[in-house]
Design a protein that fits this description.
Number of helices of chain A: 11
Number of domains of chain B: 2
Number of helices of chain B: 15
Oligomer: heterodimer
Shape of chain B: globular
Distance between the termini of chain B: 34 Å
CATH class of the largest domain in chain B: Alpha Beta
CATH class of the largest domain in chain A: Mainly Alpha
Strand order of the largest sheet of chain B: 2-1-3-4
Number of domains of chain A: 2
Distance between the termini of chain A: 37 Å
Largest sheet of chain B: 4 strands, parallel
CATH topology of the largest domain in chain A: Fumarate Reductase Iron-sulfur Protein, Chain B, domain 2
Largest interface: A-B, 68 and 68 residues
Largest sheet of chain A: none
Structural class of chain A: mainly alpha
Number of strands of chain B: 8
Helix content of chain B: 40-55%
Structural class of chain B: alpha/beta
Strand content of chain A: under 5%
Amino acid sequence: MVIDFEFRKQVMDYHQGSDVIKYCYQCNRCTDNCPVSYVTDEFYQYRYNPRSNILNALLGYKDSIFNADEIAIWGCTVCDTCDEVCPQNIELTEIFTLLKNRSIAKGDGPEFIYQQAKAVYDYGKAIPSQSAIERRREGMGLPEIIAPDTEELKTFLNNMNVNQKLKEGE
Amino acid sequence: MTEYKMFEGCTIGNRIPFIEASTRYVFDKLGIETSEAPFTCCPDPTGFKSFDDEGWLAIGARNICLAEEENKDIISLCNGCTNTLRGVQHQLAHDSIKKEHINGELAKIGKEYKGSIDVRHFIDVLEKDIGIDKIKSAITKPLTGLKVACHPGCHYMRPHEWMETNDDPMRPTTLKELSTASGATVVDYEEEVLCCGSAVSNAYEEVGMHNLKRKLDSIIKAGADVIVVNCPACFQQFDTNQRNLSKEFEQQYNIPVVYLTELYALAMGANPDDIGLKYHRTRLRDIAPLGL
């Protein structure tokens, strides 16, 4: 098992206070309360397990996370239940966000995530406006949605190199 | 009278605008005033944040800047948008390094994040600013006999450090109290705080379906006529996936889902056509106490 100290440091430094992860004593309340762990237990070969993710992140076992089945990272449904039940106040979902961001940078994330990011980048909205919906809005007497400044948004995101994570041709 | 900047969000604004129609109807009745701003996507706390956390923080901060320029609080119709914008506010208030960095980026496009406005979920405004008594006094056709199961959804109340609702994040009661004001009867069910599974469904549909079954089985067991929600992602998860669920598990799932504002609009005498009830996938007209 390879220990990646850089990865470990990145987890610890993610936010002010994210080093509380080191107080995890593997009690399993996160997994016991995780809705995805509950259902993947029955019919999946791989169980989504937030407790294992925290252990692997804490120990710097990068390969156990990033070389496993992608459900290890992307099974999380972002319900924030684990954050609330953790007796050590670890912000698990924020750690899982870091794992997802790294998975995206490697090109391993679900297509849906890339598509949504591209829509936000191109149109300023995850769900772009459609003429049929605009007519429906008008029919119900709803005001027109003011178009966002997409050029400014693109400049803003390009300055932070967010565009470099998008997949070409989508 | 306070005027809020309306943050209807991508899903309600550009996919299910009938939710906005009922909301505006109810806001008019209760004296909640709103105006528009050129907001972008919040962006999605379950989607874009997973793509790039720093970009999520930056886009959220930029949206808040637009409301700050007019010195008006934001009212959000969506759990996800509220969660993002409040999460951004929380992180920038508690992390000076992040705030400095984001403001450095905002400065390049001529903006500055100050943290001078508040971001409110419409549920929070109804509960704290309007109050049950005023809502009750606007009800003209109480929905007596209607049994509702409440699903406030994850991002309305979690993480509690961001959302600062009056609710216990694992035992919420506000949506139940607000639903009762319509004249309906709230039924409790075992899986009230269980996630609708919308986010995981996008990557693993089968996982999402099994989670949805768990949720709906609990609601049906409690004998509810309809599910009441306050989030468009949860609304869509319940409204559009029951047909697929019925096929997959060879069992009939057709319990209607209504937004709290639809419940109120009907109880305040709205014409069902004016608030677009026909656009629901699950049929509402068989539910007698709704009087459709």
